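Is this the right way to post structure tokens for a design question? Let me know if I should format differently. Anyway, here goes:
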């Protein structure tokens, strides 16, 4: 990517003079580079569709020791971290060597290495894992689950065992200073929620090796993001018409709504919209949401219960229970077993009735079922009115039910 420092256009004295000037400026011992700042998007933002991207853009950033990398969380609320260190390197270096089929069923040695790194969120009820949800910087050792000591963020040397941003808020920036003495090499990073499914690399180049400019690498990241957006667009168009992303699959029920969508061809992104966005029903009518992804159906929310991420008075980051737990009706419950041999089974797992008053929340659906099972949440409306609702997991994921 444009690694030449200049292009020789002739063998004139002018070229010799320019080359001599470069040698004087850099010294005989090798090139010196002014510190530069590079930018990496955490997730992405599509201005024409509400989407989450389980990726970093660009996925690989080339730098020199002494440079900085600014990670910018620009998504719509999907939880993410930026986590580096030798523990991360050990996991991802081994994972990359596995063939694709074995990556789906990794060996016990890799699972053991991965287990040394905390997960951002618990599997089941509980709070966010504090060593993952809050900044943590360890020179050596394994972080465990408790909150790490509150230390000032050090420069990244490549030798720390655990170097973690914590759970990034929307539009939050995390600046990584590459220490001047950092050895050339490849340093992996990933998200403590999405694990091996959301990874990136920082390549520290030797001082004599040029790297693409910050603007060139930003442009590359933008192209990577645009490519994923394009591949996901058919699913967006289908969802807005209330259609499944797979052609020929019909969604059952009189007033079905898809809560989220995606594409079998796009593993690193999802659509975070309700489709159709507006539904008209009579009084006493029902709407059934089929959830593709981790979402909630939440009415009459307030700032205290409209976001799953919560910052405590002491500055620590936690899960916000009111945004996640059912209110006014049942939650997900025990997932049923798929019936029959159909490739896709739409199954209603919860029924509720609501008069339109007070806070109502389906709670978060974990969506841990096999891909063939799509869970449904059915809600019957007793009172006439226009009811706006949201997903507490993903910002700007909104819909409207018009009753009467």
């Amino acid at each position: 990517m444009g690694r030449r420092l200049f292009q020789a256009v002739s063998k004139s004295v002018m070229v010799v003079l320019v080359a001599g000037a470069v040698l004087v400026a850099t010294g005989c011992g090798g090139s010196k580079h002014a510190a530069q700042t590079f930018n990496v998007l955490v997730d992405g933002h599509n201005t024409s569709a509400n989407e989450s991207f389980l990726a970093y853009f660009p996925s690989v950033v080339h730098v020199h020791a002494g440079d900085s990398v600014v990670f910018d969380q620009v998504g719509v609320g999907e939880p993410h971290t930026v986590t580096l260190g030798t523990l991360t390197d050990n996991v991802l270096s081994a994972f990359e060597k596995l063939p694709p089929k074995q990556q789906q069923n990794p060996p016990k040695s890799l699972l053991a290495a991965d287990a040394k790194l905390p997960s951002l969120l618990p599997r089941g009820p509980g709070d966010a894992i504090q060593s993952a949800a809050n900044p943590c910087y360890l020179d050596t050792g394994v972080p465990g689950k408790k909150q790490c000591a509150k230390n000032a963020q050090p420069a990244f040397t490549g030798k720390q065992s655990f170097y973690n941003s914590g759970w990034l808020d929307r539009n939050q920036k995390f600046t990584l200073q590459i220490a001047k003495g950092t050895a050339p090499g490849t340093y992996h990073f990933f998200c403590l929620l999405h694990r091996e499914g959301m990874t990136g690399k920082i390549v520290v180049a030797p001082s004599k090796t040029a790297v693409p400019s910050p603007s060139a690498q930003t442009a590359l990241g933008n192209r990577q993001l645009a490519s994923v957006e394009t591949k996901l667009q058919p699913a967006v168009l289908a969802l807005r018409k209330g259609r499944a992303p797979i052609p020929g699959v019909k969604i059952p029920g009189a007033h079905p709504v898809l809560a989220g969508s995606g594409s079998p061809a796009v593993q690193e992104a999802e659509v975070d919209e309700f489709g159709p966005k507006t539904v008209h029903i009579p009084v006493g009518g029902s709407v059934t949401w089929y959830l593709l992804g981790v979402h909630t159906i939440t009415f009459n929310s307030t700032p205290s219960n409209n976001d799953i991420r919560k910052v405590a008075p002491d500055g620590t980051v936690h899960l916000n229970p009111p945004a996640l737990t059912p209110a006014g009706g049942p939650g997900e419950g025990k997932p049923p077993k798929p019936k029959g041999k159909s490739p896709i089974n739409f199954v209603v797992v919860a029924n509720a009735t609501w008069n339109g008053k007070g806070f109502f929340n389906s709670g978060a659906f974990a969506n841990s079922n096999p891909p063939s099972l799509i869970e449904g949440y059915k809600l019957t409306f007793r009172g006439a009115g226009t009811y706006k609702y949201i997903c507490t997991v993903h910002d700007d994921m909104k819909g409207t039910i018009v009753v009467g």
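Format looks fine. Someone answered above. Worth noting: Helices lie at 13-26, 86-96, 100-103, 108-115, 130-133, 214-240, 321-324. Residues 30-228 form a domain with the Immunoglobulin-like fold (CATH 2.60.40.420).
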